[in-house]
From TrEMBL:
Keywords: Acyltransferase, Cytoplasm, Transferase. The keyword Cytoplasm applies. Its EC number is 2.3.2.6. Belongs to the L/F-transferase family. The keyword Iron does not apply. Functions in the N-end rule pathway of protein degradation where it conjugates Leu, Phe and, less efficiently, Met from aminoacyl-tRNAs to the N-termini of proteins containing an N-terminal arginine or lysine. Its main location: cytoplasm. It comes from Kineobactrum salinum. This is Leucyl/phenylalanyl-tRNA--protein transferase. It holds the Pfam family Leu_Phe_trans. It catalyses: L-phenylalanyl-tRNA(Phe) + an N-terminal L-alpha-aminoacyl-[protein] = an N-terminal L-phenylalanyl-L-alpha-aminoacyl-[protein] + tRNA(Phe); N-terminal L-lysyl-[protein] + L-leucyl-tRNA(Leu) = N-terminal L-leucyl-L-lysyl-[protein] + tRNA(Leu) + H(+); N-terminal L-arginyl-[protein] + L-leucyl-tRNA(Leu) = N-terminal L-leucyl-L-arginyl-[protein] + tRNA(Leu) + H(+). One of its GO terms (molecular function) is leucyl-tRNA--protein transferase activity. GO terms for biological process: protein catabolic process.
Amino acid sequence: MPGIARLAPGQAFPPTSQALDYPNGLLAAGGTLTPERLIEAYRRGIFPWYEAPQPVLWWTPDPRSVLYPRELHVSRSLRKTLRRDQWQLSVDRDFSAVMRHCAAPRTTGPGTWIGPEMLTAYATLHRLGIAHSIEVRDPDDALVGGLYGLALGRVFFGESMFSRIPGGSRIALVGLVHILRRGGFRLVDCQMESRHMNSMGARTISRLDFEAELDHTVDAFVDPAIWTLPATCGDLLL
């Protein structure tokens, strides 16, 4: 791939200013998804996104989609769903299952970029207490919605979400923000702009502004005890 750095083992990422304009944010190729490499990447606002058998591709788009927890938009219809209080909530109970659901084929097309290498790498980050999942369950305890991502300091780097019921991923996002507000988190990184996240209150900021946010937040201490939720979604409105 002309125009981007090829990472040798142990080689640092190039300056993010070298990322391509098209495709937007492509910075480098190569390397492996070790915990050390992933943490180094996310701390700088870089994330992996690729499909095997491609090499790992590293991205830092400009502008960047972010959600400030205080700006979460909960629609009238979503509030009605939450008030019904029929869905159960859990945190980090089955991280790997959430990832597998996110990787499954969608009704609108094929599966996602989440292959075996990604599943293994992020499961390792979960065991290290860095990656977290929010789960939405039906009365029979089956997973019907959820999301996962990484927490570094007071930034949550969202990776993917899924729904098996109308609004399942939205309920999970409300649950996540419930936690993040309690922990004093600054923002949720949504990576690329999407209509779905914009409808929940996300907006775009420049790469430089995003990196400035990271500089002030990724090293903050956050009590790991914040990663709990009420048993059912109705309590998210309290």
